[in-house]
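Quick one, T. Sequence first:
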Amino acid sequence: MRILVLQHLSVEHPGSLRDLWRERGWEWIPVELDAGEPIPPLEGFDVMVAMGGPMDVWEEDLHPWLVAEKQAIRRWVTELKRPYLGVCLGHQLLADALGGKVGLMGSPEVGLTSVDFTDAGRSDPLFAGFERSLDVFQWHGAEVAVLPEGGVALASSPLCAVQAMRWGPHAYGVQFHAEIIAETVSDWERIPEYMASLKRALGDEAAAGLANEVSPRLPAFRDVARQLEGNFAGLMGEAVAAG
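Structure tokens:
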């Protein structure tokens, strides 16, 4: 498998997913869009993964490369019909590229939260093996406000109605960060936009203690990442076999 990874910030990489891909012997190729790297020809890849970032999907004037990225995502899922996984911003980009709406939330959702699976989510192969809800790590201030036509909501939280979505058989987006690793909080705290949303969501005192709060949960988060990656790998195999 060759995985095209669209990155929007160097510290927003696939995290624990990299180790899982390495175990499978799969090759992943990162493209740092915010640094001006061009999207390569799509035909040479089996899977597209789009990560998070501090920009918003509507900021095309500030980040012109968003236009080309949305076009690539749209072509990938509608024409090439190959597996896609979007995380946080990548989740929102999938919705926007397909005609959905993304907007600012009333309050950022940052830290440890729980998401509940919808009826569709409980029966979706991406979430096979999970209970009715899932403890996750969040860091976002925008959300999918309106699903694209044909989109299906798979999970929600009190602050965000679309925590996960599916479009077609193999295109998925998740708002939460299953890929979190030990360095994630400290890396993201150094990003001004992220620190501002962290303090807005939790307050100064709780924000200062986020890394310590997250640390004991890392083994559980890695188990979640392994389960999700395994489920998505099964979907990838089905898509490739269908050809």
